[in-house]
Design brief:
4 helices, 6-stranded antiparallel β-sheet, 10 strands, 23% helix, alpha+beta
Length: 223
């Protein structure tokens, strides 16, 4: 009987250490300590634009408390804060490598409707607001990394899809976030990949920074 109890405890402890938390647990406090990681150029489709893609900035910040990276951008009068886990960042870097291979081998399909989700699919955390002082929406959208052609030119794309607003204050007025696509040239995507490198991000943190205990392991999330 005593041996049975010991084996049971070992099994319970083992199951705890291998437990995978849901992607929907991943949240970030926008006001958490964060460090500027860089800014890249990107392209966006705007509802009121008839000139195709328009350039804009994507401001990248690192949130060490949550081990999250934020891609902040503004489009159609809405500011988006798109958060990525460590695993998602690694998936993006891998997706870019595979995109570059397809680009060099000229195997990109111009009319493939599924190309926008060709290389990686992750679950992110999104915060958005119409004005700096308005109430924010929050959601966990699916984010696809793929490619699309615009005017015969291919772009690596980051697409966050519509998802339910989980902000208790605003969800009755704003049901879902708006789908948005970030279009990146290869040079722009390479610049983002450099910023998402974990060693680079950790190098942004001053020696006086105190990590939480325990450090969150969002990179252990499974898709």
């Amino acid at each position: 009987m005593k041996h049975f109890a010991i084996i049971t405890i070992i099994l319970i402890l083992g199951s705890c250490t291998t437990y995978k938390r849901s992607n929907l647990d991943f949240t970030v406090n926008v006001r958490s300590q964060n460090y500027a990681a860089g800014t890249i150029d990107a392209q966006f489709e705007r509802i009121l634009s008839i000139s195709g893609l328009n350039k804009g900035d994507v401001v990248v910040s690192y949130y060490p408390v949550e081990d999250a990276v934020c891609l902040q951008f503004r489009n159609d009068f809405i500011t988006f804060y798109q958060f990525w886990t460590r695993k998602s960042r690694a998936d993006f870097i891998d997706a870019l490598e595979r995109y570059n291979v397809d680009y060099e081998q000229r195997t990109l399909a111009r009319k493939n409707r599924r190309s926008a989700a060709s290389y990686a699919t992750v679950t992110g955390y999104l915060v958005w607001e119409s004005f700096n002082f308005s109430s924010k929406g929050r959601s966990h959208p699916r984010i696809d990394v793929g490619y699309l052609f615009r005017k015969n030119s291919p772009y690596l794309t980051i697409t966050h899809h519509e998802a339910r607003n989980i902000n208790e204050v605003t969800k009755t007025e704003i049901k879902n976030n708006i789908k948005q696509i970030i279009f990146l040239t290869r040079a722009q995507a390479a610049g983002l990949a450099d910023i998402l490198d974990q060693d680079y991000l950790l190098g942004l943190i001053p020696g006086s920074f105190v990590f939480p205990d325990p450090i969150p392991e969002w990179e252990d999330y499974s898709d």
